[in-house]
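Lecture 7, part 2: worked example. A protein chain together with zinc ion.
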Amino acid sequence: MTVDTRVMSNPVEWLHAIRDGAEYWLPLLLCVLLLAMVYLLWRTIQLMPRVTPAKTETSTSRVTWSDVAGVEEAKEELREVSDFLRDPDRFERLGARVPKGILFYGPPGTGKTMLAKALANESGARFYSQSAAAFVEMFAGLGAARIRKLFDEARKHAPSIVFIDELDAVGAARTGHGFNREQDQTLNQLLVELDGFAPSDQVVVMAASNRLQDLDPALLRPGRFDRQVHVAPPDVAGREAILRVHTRGKPLAADVDLERVARQTSGLTGADLANVANEAAINAGRHELQHIRMSDFDVAMERVVAGLQQRKVVTEKEKRILAYHEAGHAVMSHLMGDTMPVQKATIVSRGQALGYTLNMPSEDRYMHTREELIDMMKIYLAGRAAEQIVFGRVTNGAANDLERVTELARSMVFEYGMSEGVVSRTMRADNYALSEETKRVRDSEQARLTDGAFQEALRLLSKHRAPLDRVAAALLEKETLLQEELEAILGDVEPESRASETVGVVRAMPRRAE
Ligand code: ADP
Ligand code: ZN
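Predicted complex, written out as structure tokens:
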């Protein structure tokens, strides 16, 4: 029997060969391994977020106050900070507590970064900017280290401004889930830095955030970001001013009407408008023209607006409805006396809300009578009532108002025992204890309150149709009306309610109608 031993011996021979040759290939293999390791190490270091000071833009960025338009209120707030950075002694001698942390909040593209840059530039301070997203790293402790470094650097080169963009990335309220230890460490380090420097450091910290409500309250305490500046999307005058900034030095044809462009771009931010101006120039260039024509702006608007489909851009017809809706809130607030005076009414869309009317109690009160609460319900329902009166039907734009009214009516019935006839058996919202009968009564009671308020709102606005028209027209023209402007329009209209003159016992109220 012959066995083919070659098959068996083959691997063995092979092994021998390997052993014999080891003195040649082993060093080679080691070399390759070493090289691979060096390469990997190098890659890791490269990929690792570097702990370096943020980029300084002092000399390169030349943003001036005049470059930022349509945000006059915000600029006004910063004027004082600028004075401080230029001449801190003047304030310290007076023992004034100087601003240290300023928080800009508002939608992206409204000029928050520009404002910070302009402030730095105009007050001769160095500008350090860093996005908070960069502080949130996968390596524990790195975010905190970056913050420490950033502030050290800023202190060393004072006067300086530290600008932290997208503060939400580290500053979101600690809600339990979705918040990791690294973020926590980073936030804590930021708080330490904010608390840690003296006025003499001449460092001002600024941050930008989209939503104030989402931020950790610890950030907003006195001595931290205790000054909050709202940077809202511009109204029609603001939009025109921004368009002027972005067409500065560009050759415009005689037919260009920037005011009309401003009118047709309700809801657009400064960044969007910069885009419109640029698109118009590009369009003119494409046609090899010497000047930018109005038709170029029309094309540009269409293009930019189309690119913003997810954002609400309001049509002329919607704008009219919106104007009457907000006018309804404003007129009703006026009619209700001092319960919830209007601070501002606007049809400039912002976030979810198309327009809104900001009501502020004239004093910070936590107690309201039943009558006052019903007046508030009328104010919340007045937007819908105005739509009903003027257009004969209501839109879905009042969803938020209805939520508030429902909540208010519910509280009145359940928590405050304010429903008529059932006061004796106050119906607290301990659901399990409620019988079917009680539930039915309280639901109908809630509905009765709401319906009653809506009918009153309809009656009062019909009675005061003329002032309603006046406010709506003013809103259509100016888009935003401040308290004084509203008072000028409504000054001769007598309030219909005196409920605010008496006080009962209830908790704080929501303040914004949409
Ligand atoms: P934010 O920080 O609020 O997101 P930016 O300040 O970064 O917005 O603005 C982005 C760009 O949009 C700016 O470079 C500028 O061209 C334009 N822009 C935004 N707001 C304004 C404004 N108020 N005035 C002029 N240009 C603006
Ligand atoms: Zn409303």
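The beta strands are 101-105, 126-131, 160-165, 203-209, 227-230, 342-346, 356-359, 480-482, 512-513. The pocket of adenosine-5'-diphosphate (ligand 1) is lined by residues 68-71, 108-114, 208, 242, 245, 270-271, 274 (CB under 6 Å). Keep this in mind for problem set question 3.
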